[in-house]
Design a protein that fits this description.
Oligomer: heterodimer
Number of strands of chain A: 13
Shape of chain A: elongated
Family (chain B): Belongs to the ABC-2 integral membrane protein family.
Radius of gyration of chain A: 22 Å
Keywords (chain B): Antibiotic resistance, Cell membrane, Membrane, Transmembrane, Transmembrane helix, Transport
Strand content of chain A: 25-35%
Subcellular location (chain B): Cell membrane; Membrane
Number of domains of chain A: 2
Helix content of chain B: over 70%
Structural class of chain B: mainly alpha
Order of helices and strands of chain B: HHEEHHHHHHHH
Distance between the termini of chain B: 32 Å
Order of helices and strands of chain A: EEEHEHEHHHEHEHEEHEHEEHEH
CATH architecture of the largest domain in chain A: 3-Layer(aba) Sandwich
Number of helices of chain A: 11
Strand content of chain B: under 5%
Number of domains of chain B: 1
Protein name (chain B): Transport permease protein
Structural class of chain A: alpha/beta
InterPro entries (chain B): ABC2_TM, ABC2_TM_bact-type, ABC_2_transport, Nod_factor_ABC_transporter
Number of strands of chain B: 2
C-alpha cells in the first residue's frame, strides 16, 4: 500500500501514434510512491508503449505526462537517472560477463567504480546469481537473464522500477523465482510499475492496476475492487463434452437465470453467480447435465472477459 | 550560465567516458584483433614501400624536389592505417552493437543520450586508431622514413583523419541495414586507397579524374600527413584539416540523429 501520497508519475489524456496507428488513445493515471502499480491487458493493448513513454524512451504524441514532477519531453536524461527499467527483451550486454553487465551499467549512471562493484556484488546476491558472476550472459537461462536484468535495474537505487512483462516466456519455476524477488522489493518499499497479461501476476503483485484494451484504460482499482465491481463473487465453469463454439452459444441461451450473467466461450460456458450452490441447484432443476463443472472464485481474468468479451491470453491454436 | 555549461560538458564527458569504459571492458579480451589491424599496415609498407619502391627508386614531386618512393608511400600508408582502424571500429563494430547485439537498446534506458553514445564511440575509435598510428610512426622512424621535425606533426595530423572517418563510420553504421552493405563501403575504401594519392601524385591522373579525388576524404588526409612527414608544410593543409573536421562533425551529428530516431520510437 502507498506509504505517502507523493505522485511519481501522472498522465492526463496521454496519447501516442505511429503514423496512422494510434497505440495509446488518451490514458489518465497516477502512480504513487511505495505502491506496486500494474497495467493489465492483452498483447497490443498499448501497455508497453505507455511504459516506454514513462521511461522517457518514447515521445508522447499529445497529452501531458509528468515523471518525478518533470517533463519527459525535455528532461528525459534526468528522469532516466532515477528510473530502473527491465525491458521485455532484457537488452543485456552480450559482450560482457554477468558481473561486468552490472558494473558497466552503473557507469552509465555515473556511479563510481568502487561503489559500483560493491553494489553489483550485493545485487547478484539478491537475485541469486553470485555463482554465475563470471559467466557470459549467453550462458544464462531465460529466467537467470531476467533476474540479471532486474538486478541491473536496481543498480542506481531507483525511485521507480519499471518492468515490462517480467515473466513472459519463463517456465513456472523461473516465474516464481522472479515473483519472489519482486515481492521482496515491494516489502522494501520500492515503487514498482509493471505490465502483464497474466492475471495471477497482477493479482499477486499489484496494489492497484488499470486494465488496458485497444489503447484505452477500461477499468482501474485494486484487484479486489475490480473483481467486486465488475463480476460476481463466484464463477461456475461448465463444459459439455465435445460441444464447441456455436453449440455452446446455443446451449448458453437455455441457461438464462441460473446465474447473474452467462458468458459463452469457445470451449466452455461461464456462469457468474453470487452462490455456486444455487447455480448447481438451478442446473439440476432444469436437468442440464454438463460433463464437467467447476466452481471457483472470480479472478481478474473474469473482469477482463466481462469488460472486453475476450480472454486475456488467447489460446494459441 | 557558465556553471551550467561547465556541468553539462562534464556530464557529457562522464557519460561518453562510461561508454568508453564499456568498450574497453568488452574488447580487452579481444586484443589480438586490434594487433592484427596494425600488422596489416606493416605488410602494406613492406609490399609497396620496399617492394615496389626498389623498382621505382626516387620520385620527383610536382614542386621539383626528389624523395625516395618508400618515403613517399609510407605517409600515405600511415594515413590509410589511421582510416582503417577507425572505420572498422565505428562502422562494423558500431553496426554490430546497434543492430545485431542491441547494446544501445539497454543503454537508452540510462541517462546517456545518443550524443553521448556517438561521442563515446568516437573516443574509443580514436584510441584504437591511435595505437595503429603510434606503432606505425615508430616503425617509420626506425626505417629512417621521417626526415624532419615536421614529421612529428604527422601524428596529430592522423588524428584529424581518424576523426573524419569516425564520423563517416558512425553515419554508415546507422544507415546500413545489412552486413552486405559493407561490401560497397569496402569497395569505396579500396578505391580511395588506390586512387586517393597513395601511390602517385594526383597530378599524374587525367584531368577529369582529379575532381573526384579531391572529394575523397582520404586524399586530404594523405596530403596532410605526407606534407608534414616530408617536411613540406603548406597553407593548403588548413583546408585539409577543415575538410576532415567538417566530416567528423557532420558524421557524428547525422549518426546521433539516426540513433535517436531508431531507438526513441
Amino acid at each position: 500500500m502507498p506509504i505517502h501520497n507523493e505522485i511519481l508519475a501522472r498522465a492526463v489524456d496521454l496519447r501516442k501514434s505511429y503514423g496512422e496507428h494510434e497505440a495509446v488513445r488518451g490514458v489518465d493515471f497516477e502512480i504513487l510512491r511505495g505502491e506496486a502499480f500494474g497495467f493489465l491487458g492483452a498483447n497490443g493493448a498499448g501497455k508497453s508503449t505507455t511504459m516506454r513513454m514513462i521511461g522517457c524512451v518514447s515521445q508522447p504524441t499529445s497529452g501531458s505526462l509528468e515523471v518525478f514532477g518533470r517533463d519527459p519531453r525535455t528532461e528525459g536524461a534526468a528522469i532516466r537517472a532515477r528510473l530502473g527499467v527491465v525491458p521485455q527483451d532484457n537488452t543485456l550486454d552480450g559482450m560482457l560477463t554477468v558481473f561486468e553487465n552490472l558494473v558497466v551499467y552503473a557507469g552509465y549512471f555515473g556511479i563510481k567504480k568502487k561503489d559500483a562493484r560493491e553494489k553489483a556484488a550485493e545485487l547478484l546476491d539478491f537475485v541469486q546469481l553470485t555463482p554465475r558472476a563470471k559467466d557470459q550472459v549467453s550462458e544464462l537461462s531465460g529466467g537467470m537473464q531476467r533476474r540479471l536484468a532486474i538486478a541491473r535495474s536496481l543498480i542506481n537505487d531507483p525511485d521507480l522500477v519499471i518492468l515490462d512483462e517480467p515473466t513472459t516466456g519463463l517456465d513456472p519455476q523461473a516465474r516464481h523465482l522472479v515473483w519472489e524477488r519482486l515481492f521482496q522489493l515491494k516489502q522494501r518499499g520500492v515503487s514498482i510499475l509493471l505490465t502483464t497479461h497474466y492475471m495471477d501476476e497482477a493479482e499477486q503483485l499489484c496494489d492497484r492496476l488499470v486494465v488496458m484494451d485497444e489503447g484505452r484504460i477500461i477499468a482501474a482499482g485494486s484487484p479486489r475492487e475490480l473483481i467486486d465491481t465488475h463480476v460476481t463473487k463466484e464463477v461456475v465453469e461448465l463444459r459439455f463434452g465435445p460441444a464447441h463454439t456455436t453449440e455452446l452459444a446455443e446451449l448458453s441461451l437455455t441457461l438464462t437465470g441460473v446465474g447473474a450473467q452467462i458468458e459463452s466461450l469457445p470451449d466452455k460456458i461461464l456462469v457468474y453467480t453470487d452462490d455456486a450452490d444455487d447455480t448447481n441447484a438451478a442446473l439440476d432443476a432444469r436437468d442440464i447435465r454438463p460433463t464437467s463443472m467447476l466452481a471457483r472464485r472470480a479472478t481478474l481474468e473474469d473482469v477482463f472477459l466481462r469488460l472486453t468479451g475476450r480472454a486475456l491470453v488467447e489460446d494459441e491454436t | 550560465m557558465s556553471v551550467i555549461a561547465y556541468s553539462a560538458a562534464r556530464a557529457t564527458l562522464r557519460s561518453s567516458g562510461a561508454l568508453l569504459n564499456r568498450n574497453w571492458i568488452a574488447m580487452r579480451r579481444a586484443w589480438v584483433l586490434i594487433v592484427s589491424g596494425a600488422v596489416e599496415s606493416l605488410l602494406f609498407l613492406f609490399a609497396f614501400g620496399f617492394g615496389v619502391g626498389s623498382l621505382v627508386g626516387d620520385l620527383t614531386l610536382p614542386d621539383g624536389s626528389t624523395v625516395s618512393y618508400t618515403a613517399y608511400v609510407a605517409p600515405a600508408i600511415l594515413a590509410n592505417a589511421a582510416m582503417m582502424g577507425v572505420l572498422a571500429e565505428t562502422s562494423i563494430n558500431v553496426f554490430a552493437k546497434f543492430k545485431w547485439m542491441k547494446v544501445y537498446d539497454g543503454i537508452l534506458n540510462t541517462p546517456l543520450r545518443p550524443w553521448d553514445v556517438a561521442l563515446g564511440e568516437v573516443w574509443w575509435a580514436l584510441i584504437r586508431g591511435g595505437t595503429y598510428i603510434g606503432a606505425f610512426v615508430v616503425i617509420m622512424g626506425l626505417f629512417g622514413l621521417l626526415d624532419s621535425w615536421w614529421s612529428l606533426l604527422a601524428v596529430p595530423a592522423c588524428v584529424f583523419i581518424a576523426l573524419a572517418f569516425a564520423g563517416i563510420g558512425l553515419t554508415l553504421a546507422t544507415l546500413f541495414r545489412e552486413w552486405t552493405d559493407f561490401d560497397w563501403m569496402n569497395a569505396v575504401v579500396f578505391a580511395m586507397f588506390l586512387f586517393g594519392g597513395t601511390f602517385t601524385p594526383v597530378e599524374a591522373y587525367p584531368a577529369f579524374v582529379q575532381p573526384v579525388v579531391y572529394v575523397m576524404p582520404l586524399y586530404h588526409g594523405i596530403e596532410l600527413v605526407r606534407g608534414l612527414s616530408l617536411g613540406q608544410p603548406s597553407p593548403w593543409m588548413l583546408l585539409h584539416i577543415a575538410y576532415l573536421l567538417a566530416l567528423c562533425v557532420v558524421g557524428m551529428w547525422v549518426a546521433q540523429k539516426r540513433l535517436s530516431k531508431a531507438l526513441y520510437k
